[in-house]
Amino acid sequence: MSFDFPLRFQVIQFFALLVRIGVIVFLGIPALSSARIPGPVKMAITTVTAVILIPVLPDSWQAPELYQFMSLGGLLYLVASEFTLGLFVSLIIRMMIEVVGIAGLIIDRNLGYSMATVLDPTMEDQSTIISSFMIQVFLMLFLITDVHLILVKLAAESLRTIPPGQFILQPEHHDSLLYLGTDMFRMGFQIALPIFTIILFINVAMALMARFGEEFEVMMLSFPLRLGLGLGLLMALAPVYCSLFRGINDQMIEWISAVLKIG
Protein backbone atom coordinates (compact mmCIF):
# COMPACT_ATOMS: atom_id res chain seq x y z
CA MET A 1 0.00 0.00 0.00
CA SER A 2 1.27 3.47 -0.86
CA PHE A 3 0.96 6.33 1.61
CA ASP A 4 2.04 9.11 -0.74
CA PHE A 5 -1.48 10.46 -1.28
CA PRO A 6 -3.71 12.34 1.18
CA LEU A 7 -5.36 10.56 4.05
CA ARG A 8 -8.85 11.25 2.71
CA PHE A 9 -8.18 8.99 -0.28
CA GLN A 10 -7.17 6.19 2.06
CA VAL A 11 -10.35 6.70 4.09
CA ILE A 12 -12.56 6.51 0.98
CA GLN A 13 -10.62 3.50 -0.28
CA PHE A 14 -11.02 1.64 3.01
CA PHE A 15 -14.67 2.64 3.36
CA ALA A 16 -15.57 1.34 -0.13
CA LEU A 17 -13.78 -1.92 0.58
CA LEU A 18 -15.52 -2.19 3.95
CA VAL A 19 -18.98 -1.76 2.38
CA ARG A 20 -18.40 -4.38 -0.34
CA ILE A 21 -17.04 -7.01 2.06
CA GLY A 22 -19.38 -6.07 4.92
CA VAL A 23 -22.63 -6.52 3.00
CA ILE A 24 -21.58 -10.04 1.93
CA VAL A 25 -20.56 -10.93 5.49
CA PHE A 26 -23.65 -9.43 7.16
CA LEU A 27 -26.25 -10.61 4.63
CA GLY A 28 -24.78 -13.34 2.45
CA ILE A 29 -22.50 -15.92 4.02
CA PRO A 30 -24.79 -18.18 6.14
CA ALA A 31 -22.12 -19.01 8.70
CA LEU A 32 -21.60 -15.32 9.46
CA SER A 33 -24.92 -13.62 8.66
CA SER A 34 -26.89 -15.35 11.42
CA ALA A 35 -28.44 -13.10 14.06
CA ARG A 36 -26.92 -15.38 16.69
CA ILE A 37 -23.50 -13.92 15.89
CA PRO A 38 -23.11 -10.51 17.58
CA GLY A 39 -22.84 -7.47 15.36
CA PRO A 40 -19.44 -6.43 16.78
CA VAL A 41 -18.03 -9.85 15.86
CA LYS A 42 -19.28 -9.50 12.28
CA MET A 43 -17.87 -5.98 12.11
CA ALA A 44 -14.52 -7.21 13.43
CA ILE A 45 -14.40 -9.97 10.79
CA THR A 46 -15.26 -7.46 8.07
CA THR A 47 -12.65 -4.95 9.26
CA VAL A 48 -9.88 -7.55 9.57
CA THR A 49 -10.66 -8.89 6.09
CA ALA A 50 -10.62 -5.38 4.63
CA VAL A 51 -7.30 -4.58 6.32
CA ILE A 52 -5.77 -7.79 4.94
CA LEU A 53 -6.92 -6.93 1.41
CA ILE A 54 -5.65 -3.33 1.40
CA PRO A 55 -2.01 -4.18 0.52
CA VAL A 56 -3.10 -6.17 -2.55
CA LEU A 57 -5.57 -3.64 -3.97
CA PRO A 58 -5.17 -3.19 -7.75
CA ASP A 59 -4.36 0.12 -9.43
CA SER A 60 -8.06 0.81 -10.04
CA TRP A 61 -8.42 1.36 -6.28
CA GLN A 62 -5.68 3.98 -6.02
CA ALA A 63 -5.98 7.75 -5.64
CA PRO A 64 -6.57 8.96 -9.25
CA GLU A 65 -9.54 6.64 -9.73
CA LEU A 66 -11.06 7.57 -6.35
CA TYR A 67 -10.80 11.36 -6.90
CA GLN A 68 -14.26 11.44 -8.56
CA PHE A 69 -15.82 10.26 -5.28
CA MET A 70 -14.43 13.06 -3.13
CA SER A 71 -17.71 15.02 -3.08
CA LEU A 72 -20.70 14.08 -0.94
CA GLY A 73 -22.70 13.00 -3.98
CA GLY A 74 -19.80 10.95 -5.28
CA LEU A 75 -19.34 9.27 -1.91
CA LEU A 76 -23.04 8.38 -1.72
CA TYR A 77 -22.87 6.95 -5.24
CA LEU A 78 -19.81 4.90 -4.28
CA VAL A 79 -21.55 3.47 -1.21
CA ALA A 80 -24.72 2.70 -3.19
CA SER A 81 -22.74 0.90 -5.90
CA GLU A 82 -20.72 -1.21 -3.47
CA PHE A 83 -23.81 -1.97 -1.38
CA THR A 84 -25.75 -3.06 -4.49
CA LEU A 85 -22.94 -5.39 -5.53
CA GLY A 86 -22.77 -7.03 -2.10
CA LEU A 87 -26.56 -7.24 -1.93
CA PHE A 88 -26.77 -8.89 -5.36
CA VAL A 89 -24.22 -11.54 -4.35
CA SER A 90 -26.00 -12.11 -1.03
CA LEU A 91 -29.33 -12.54 -2.82
CA ILE A 92 -27.88 -15.29 -5.01
CA ILE A 93 -26.59 -17.12 -1.93
CA ARG A 94 -29.95 -16.86 -0.16
CA MET A 95 -31.87 -18.05 -3.22
CA MET A 96 -29.68 -21.13 -3.50
CA ILE A 97 -30.35 -21.95 0.14
CA GLU A 98 -34.06 -21.60 -0.58
CA VAL A 99 -33.73 -24.34 -3.23
CA VAL A 100 -33.10 -26.81 -0.41
CA GLY A 101 -35.88 -25.26 1.67
CA ILE A 102 -38.39 -25.67 -1.15
CA ALA A 103 -37.39 -29.31 -1.61
CA GLY A 104 -37.85 -29.97 2.11
CA LEU A 105 -41.23 -28.22 2.09
CA ILE A 106 -42.47 -30.42 -0.77
CA ILE A 107 -41.29 -33.53 1.06
CA ASP A 108 -42.96 -32.40 4.29
CA ARG A 109 -46.27 -31.76 2.54
CA ASN A 110 -46.25 -35.25 1.04
CA LEU A 111 -45.26 -36.98 4.28
CA GLY A 112 -47.91 -35.14 6.28
CA TYR A 113 -45.53 -32.93 8.25
CA SER A 114 -46.53 -29.61 6.72
CA MET A 115 -48.29 -28.49 9.92
CA ALA A 116 -45.31 -29.35 12.15
CA THR A 117 -43.04 -26.31 12.17
CA VAL A 118 -39.90 -25.38 14.05
CA LEU A 119 -37.84 -22.21 14.27
CA ASP A 120 -35.08 -22.40 11.70
CA PRO A 121 -32.08 -20.54 13.22
CA THR A 122 -30.44 -20.19 9.81
CA MET A 123 -33.28 -18.47 7.97
CA GLU A 124 -34.63 -16.97 11.23
CA ASP A 125 -38.17 -18.00 10.37
CA GLN A 126 -40.65 -20.79 10.94
CA SER A 127 -39.91 -23.83 8.79
CA THR A 128 -41.17 -27.39 8.47
CA ILE A 129 -39.18 -30.16 10.14
CA ILE A 130 -37.56 -31.85 7.16
CA SER A 131 -37.04 -28.55 5.39
CA SER A 132 -35.12 -27.21 8.39
CA PHE A 133 -33.13 -30.45 8.66
CA MET A 134 -32.15 -30.40 4.97
CA ILE A 135 -31.07 -26.76 5.21
CA GLN A 136 -28.85 -27.62 8.17
CA VAL A 137 -27.26 -30.49 6.21
CA PHE A 138 -26.72 -28.16 3.26
CA LEU A 139 -25.04 -25.57 5.47
CA MET A 140 -22.88 -28.24 7.09
CA LEU A 141 -21.59 -29.21 3.63
CA PHE A 142 -21.28 -25.49 2.88
CA LEU A 143 -18.79 -25.15 5.72
CA ILE A 144 -17.05 -28.53 5.33
CA THR A 145 -16.25 -27.84 1.67
CA ASP A 146 -14.99 -24.32 2.52
CA VAL A 147 -17.54 -22.57 0.32
CA HIS A 148 -17.58 -19.64 2.75
CA LEU A 149 -13.84 -19.18 2.19
CA ILE A 150 -14.32 -19.45 -1.57
CA LEU A 151 -16.91 -16.65 -1.37
CA VAL A 152 -14.45 -14.44 0.49
CA LYS A 153 -11.85 -15.24 -2.17
CA LEU A 154 -14.31 -14.30 -4.93
CA ALA A 155 -15.06 -11.03 -3.14
CA ALA A 156 -11.31 -10.34 -3.03
CA GLU A 157 -10.89 -11.15 -6.74
CA SER A 158 -13.80 -8.83 -7.57
CA LEU A 159 -11.59 -5.93 -6.49
CA ARG A 160 -9.61 -6.55 -9.67
CA THR A 161 -12.53 -7.09 -12.05
CA ILE A 162 -14.94 -4.42 -10.73
CA PRO A 163 -13.36 -1.08 -9.75
CA PRO A 164 -14.92 0.94 -6.92
CA GLY A 165 -18.25 2.50 -7.79
CA GLN A 166 -18.43 0.80 -11.19
CA PHE A 167 -21.12 -1.81 -10.49
CA ILE A 168 -24.44 -0.82 -12.02
CA LEU A 169 -27.45 -3.09 -12.38
CA GLN A 170 -27.84 -3.96 -16.05
CA PRO A 171 -30.73 -5.69 -17.88
CA GLU A 172 -28.75 -8.94 -17.84
CA HIS A 173 -28.66 -8.80 -14.05
CA HIS A 174 -32.46 -8.60 -13.93
CA ASP A 175 -32.70 -11.48 -16.40
CA SER A 176 -30.31 -13.52 -14.26
CA LEU A 177 -32.48 -13.00 -11.18
CA LEU A 178 -35.62 -14.00 -13.09
CA TYR A 179 -33.89 -17.10 -14.41
CA LEU A 180 -32.56 -17.98 -10.98
CA GLY A 181 -36.00 -17.48 -9.43
CA THR A 182 -37.66 -19.90 -11.87
CA ASP A 183 -34.74 -22.32 -11.72
CA MET A 184 -34.96 -22.30 -7.93
CA PHE A 185 -38.38 -23.98 -7.97
CA ARG A 186 -37.31 -26.43 -10.68
CA MET A 187 -34.24 -27.53 -8.75
CA GLY A 188 -36.21 -27.81 -5.51
CA PHE A 189 -38.83 -30.02 -7.14
CA GLN A 190 -36.16 -32.20 -8.74
CA ILE A 191 -34.57 -32.80 -5.34
CA ALA A 192 -37.94 -33.82 -3.85
CA LEU A 193 -39.06 -35.79 -6.94
CA PRO A 194 -38.11 -39.34 -5.73
CA ILE A 195 -40.08 -39.04 -2.51
CA PHE A 196 -42.88 -37.16 -4.29
CA THR A 197 -43.20 -40.05 -6.76
CA ILE A 198 -43.29 -42.75 -4.06
CA ILE A 199 -45.93 -40.89 -2.09
CA LEU A 200 -47.96 -40.39 -5.28
CA PHE A 201 -47.96 -44.15 -5.91
CA ILE A 202 -48.98 -44.77 -2.29
CA ASN A 203 -51.86 -42.31 -2.58
CA VAL A 204 -53.06 -43.95 -5.80
CA ALA A 205 -52.86 -47.39 -4.15
CA MET A 206 -54.77 -46.14 -1.12
CA ALA A 207 -57.43 -44.68 -3.41
CA LEU A 208 -57.84 -48.01 -5.21
CA MET A 209 -58.04 -49.86 -1.89
CA ALA A 210 -60.72 -47.47 -0.68
CA ARG A 211 -62.65 -47.96 -3.91
CA PHE A 212 -62.58 -51.74 -4.12
CA GLY A 213 -62.12 -52.77 -0.53
CA GLU A 214 -64.33 -50.86 1.84
CA GLU A 215 -63.19 -52.95 4.80
CA PHE A 216 -59.70 -51.43 4.68
CA GLU A 217 -59.05 -48.54 7.05
CA VAL A 218 -57.35 -46.39 4.46
CA MET A 219 -57.02 -43.33 6.66
CA MET A 220 -55.39 -45.39 9.41
CA LEU A 221 -52.94 -47.01 6.96
CA SER A 222 -52.09 -43.96 4.86
CA PHE A 223 -50.13 -41.85 7.33
CA PRO A 224 -47.80 -44.52 8.82
CA LEU A 225 -47.22 -46.00 5.38
CA ARG A 226 -46.32 -42.65 3.84
CA LEU A 227 -44.21 -41.70 6.82
CA GLY A 228 -42.32 -44.99 6.97
CA LEU A 229 -41.56 -45.27 3.26
CA GLY A 230 -40.85 -41.57 2.93
CA LEU A 231 -38.35 -41.44 5.79
CA GLY A 232 -36.79 -44.73 4.67
CA LEU A 233 -36.29 -43.40 1.16
CA LEU A 234 -34.97 -40.12 2.57
CA MET A 235 -32.29 -41.99 4.53
CA ALA A 236 -31.45 -44.19 1.54
CA LEU A 237 -31.03 -41.13 -0.67
CA ALA A 238 -28.84 -39.26 1.85
CA PRO A 239 -25.60 -39.78 -0.16
CA VAL A 240 -27.39 -38.66 -3.33
CA TYR A 241 -28.71 -35.53 -1.60
CA CYS A 242 -25.23 -34.69 -0.30
CA SER A 243 -23.93 -34.91 -3.86
CA LEU A 244 -26.80 -32.70 -5.08
CA PHE A 245 -26.08 -30.15 -2.36
CA ARG A 246 -22.43 -29.99 -3.43
CA GLY A 247 -23.65 -29.42 -6.97
CA ILE A 248 -25.83 -26.54 -5.76
CA ASN A 249 -22.80 -25.00 -4.07
CA ASP A 250 -20.80 -25.32 -7.29
CA GLN A 251 -23.66 -23.73 -9.26
CA MET A 252 -23.84 -20.88 -6.76
CA ILE A 253 -20.10 -20.21 -7.09
CA GLU A 254 -20.41 -20.27 -10.88
CA TRP A 255 -23.23 -17.70 -10.88
CA ILE A 256 -21.47 -15.42 -8.42
CA SER A 257 -18.27 -15.63 -10.48
CA ALA A 258 -20.25 -14.58 -13.55
CA VAL A 259 -21.73 -11.58 -11.70
CA LEU A 260 -18.27 -10.56 -10.46
CA LYS A 261 -16.77 -11.10 -13.96
CA ILE A 262 -14.30 -13.67 -12.64
CA GLY A 263 -13.01 -16.51 -14.76
Q: How many strands, what sense, and barrel or not for the largest sheet? A: 2 strands, antiparallel
Strand proportion, as a percent range, falls in under 5%
Q: Would you report the number of β strands?
A: 2
From the alpha carbons, calculate the radius of gyration and give it in angstroms: 24 Å
Brief digest:
The protein has 263 residues and is mainly alpha-helical. It is 76% helix and 3% strand.
Folded structure, characterized:
The structure is a single chain. The chain is mainly α. The protein has one domain. Helix content is 76%, strand content 3%. A two-stranded antiparallel ribbon has the order 1-2. Helix 1 crosses helix 3 and helix 5 packs parallel to helix 8.
Task: Give the SSE map.
Blueprint: H1 7-28, H2 30-33, H3 39-53, H4 63-66, H5 72-111, E1 117-120, E2 125-128, H6 129-144, H7 147-161, H8 171-212, H9 218-236, H10 238-259
Antiparallel strand pairs: 1-2
Helix pairs in contact: 1-3, 1-5, 1-7, 5-6, 5-8, 5-10, 6-10, 7-10, 8-9
State the main characteristics.
mainly alpha; 76% helix; 263 residues; elongated
